[in-house]
Predict the 3D structure of the following.
Amino acid sequence: MSSARKPWEHAKAGGSEHDELAARFVESLSYDTRMYKHDIAGSIAHARMLQKVGLITADDLSEIERGLTEIRGEIDEQGAAWPGWKVELEDVHMCIEAALIEKVGDPGRKLHTGRSRNDQVALDLRLWVDDATAEMDTLCVDLIAAYVSVAERDGDVVMPSYTHLQRAQPIVAGGELMAWCAAVGRCRNRIRLVRAFHNQNPLGSGAIAGSSLPLDREATGEFLRGEAGWTPTDNSIDATANRDVALDYVYALSMTAMTLSRWAEQWIIYMTAEFGFIRIGDAFTTGSSMMPQKRNPDMLELIRGRCGNVYGSLTSLLTMCKGITIGYNRDLQEDKRHVFAAHDTVRDCLMMAAAIARSASFNAERINAGLDRGFADATSLAEYLVNKGVPFRTAHQHVGAIVRMCDEKGVASLTKLDVADMKTVCDKIGKDVAEWLGPANVVKRYRSSGNAGLSGYKEALAVWKDLVGGHADAKEAGSVQASLFGDVDVSDEDEALITAYRELGRTLDDLPYTDEFEALYKAAGGERSRSDVLRRLMNMRKAGKLPRLGRALEKPPVLDGEQEALLMDLVIEHAGSLSLRDQLPYSEAFDAVATAFNARTGLQLSEHQIWRVIAKLAK
Ligand code: ARG
């Protein structure tokens, strides 16, 4: 790093009183360069606003944009070796501004008009967290996808569940996997909430009190985020003084880490010789330097252990913010260390967790061997009696007596006790009780929604599978960072598809199940399936990469209200929800919807016509 003076310290002769120790102590450059893309995006939005309100000229703006775009390219390429990183300049903001001035001269000197590093860093942090939440969202979904893949293979394995780590009721492995999906799904939503809660623009707050210049803060937000522009924060003092976005994000990460630590502990227990419920890939265990037989779950242990680091970041942040006066204080600079550390840890743990989960299998034989122990079907027997009209409390007592009887007679499970013996406790018990006893029978009987038996897990699995599929599509549409700079990746193959689409001249919603679509599918070269081609088109449309043709060659057929309601129900039944309709065309689910609809209405609509109605109803 070369040396430079601090151009903003004029009152102190431009920082000429340089002290090496002080410079090293005060800098944040060693960790805040991670925000360079966000800093540059914020600066471009700010400059566009300055030009809009007449504080800089169009020529100034184009010089600033050219300079910043070049700088972004240089840092993309050179990373830490970029010569503009000068630790004497303290932080990412000053280094980029200094490099801009060096590149473009006076226009660069106008960029900081009406801005302070205090509102600048507040914005950069929000933008960084915004991107980080998008990454974390994807990683949560990846982990859910891993649980789903195990459930699809081993979901039917009957096993005990535990409360107090004592045998409770029989469940299926899929039921427990769906529990982890629910927990991680909630972590994901919590992270998404952070994103939705802090999408406000602090720029224009200045150092603390705002500015006498005619800044248009609404415009900055729009330049920053296009149509879905960020609205200005409410109060200039609060906007520069608070770090709620850091705290909320690290809290959401802490909850995620805590959830992962519970899962890790559960599987560590399941991997012991005593349980032997689960095996994970050898790559995710380590041997012992002394004991040759060992397969230790070190990666799971580290997931459990690193949760502590994340809590540490949260505690540090809370403590850092405690008691500081309202306005920027340099304490706040420390926020980024903790946010980045917590983010990196949870990112690594989520990725590791997904890899471990993907490699796992439930050992049905081992689980089955001891399944009859522990009277896990006792609750089922009580519910059998409820069905025979016995009040639950009484049934509970009866079953308690029956379990005691088993103990006295040395009978190991309820299935092995004679019905005649049971009858001595309660005469309502008949031969049909056999269907309520034994774990395999019990898991078939659960009916309440969200249950951990066969019906509940299958229902949940369908929902999670939809989420996983839909998310893969959203990811394809381009990252947040990409949309920030308007450069969604379009491959050569995609270009060919766009050209063919433009030539057809028939709008996307009107395309499924037509000869035109067949032509397009052939033009795509047959590498992708029909549904892949269609989804790619839909994703490019969402990303604004597909021209809007707006021409439908046919009108959807007119149906009555009842028929429309039936069709919507069928879509929800087979696609999971109306908003997942885009996944329907060219799938088996679509065929099921079409066949059922025509059969139940007596109509003979074509696949194309049915699709048109679905597309119309969804709007
Ligand atoms: N590097 C600083 C931070 O991260 C930027 C803000 C500096 N502001 C100031 N008034 N010294 O907080």
Confidence is low (pLDDT under 50) at residues 477-487. The beta strands are 158-163, 166-172, 200-201, 231-232, 278-279, 361-362. The longest strand covers residues 166-172. The pocket of arginine is lined by residues 28, 32, 90-91, 117-118, 121, 328, 330, 332-333 (CB under 6 Å).
